[in-house]
Design brief:
Helix content is 35%, strand content 18%. By secondary structure, the protein is α/β, with parallel strands linked by helices. Helix 2 runs parallel beside helix 5 and helix 3 runs parallel beside helix 4. The protein binds 1,3,4-trihydroxy-5-OXO-cyclohexanecarboxylic acid. 1,3,4-trihydroxy-5-OXO-cyclohexanecarboxylic acid binds next to loops.
């Protein structure tokens, strides 16, 4: 499979309500804040000479704009679309439009939760999905992307 030309930039996108991590339903989403996830990933990326661009928004259009802005600049995208996962055709179409390799991450195991969370409209256009592993899912996604890009350069 041909990978996109290697820029050493990876985009991390978090959708609605993920700014509340740490105090939002900690029994489901854990105690780790988004700032902690972003700084862990930023440091891990830097160790391997990659730059991580971190973005969070509660607004669908802002997420579409950011995917469009970085989708040709970054080699990879890690995205937790939050509730947009389940209904945003606009986010799905933006991800499908860009060449960056995308990994979908969910902190919780969406397949084991309410039926309306079982379907992701995004999953069909991403390289893979990690769900239910908490913050470790983001780390695994980052390691996967960097290993992939380092192998293909
Ligand atoms: C989530 C799961 C979604 O169903 C939910 O709306 C979220 C977070 C997760 O990380 O587990 O906001 O994407």
């Amino acid at each position: 499979m041909t990978e996109p030309a290697a820029s050493r930039t990876i985009l991390l996108v978090n959708g609605p309500n993920l700014n509340l991590l740490g105090k939002r339903e900690p029994g489901i989403y854990g105690a780790t804040t988004l700032a902690e996830i972003e700084s862990t990933l930023t440091a891990r990326a830097l160790e391997r000479q990659y730059q991580l661009v971190c973005f969070q928004s509660n607004h669908e259009g802002a997420i579409v704009d950011t995917v469009q802005q970085y989708g040709w600049v970054a080699s990879g995208i890690i995205i937790n679309p939050g509730a947009l996962t389940h209904y945003s055709i606009a986010v799905r179409d933006a991800l499908a439009a860009v060449p960056a390799v995308t990994i979908e991450v969910h902190l919780s195991n969406i397949a084991a939760r309410e039926p309306f969370r079982h379907h992701s409209v995004v999953s069909a256009v991403v390289r893979g999905t990690i769900a239910g592993l908490g913050p470790a899912g983001y780390v695994l996604a980052l390691d996967y992307l960097i290993d992939l890009f380092d192998r293909s350069t």
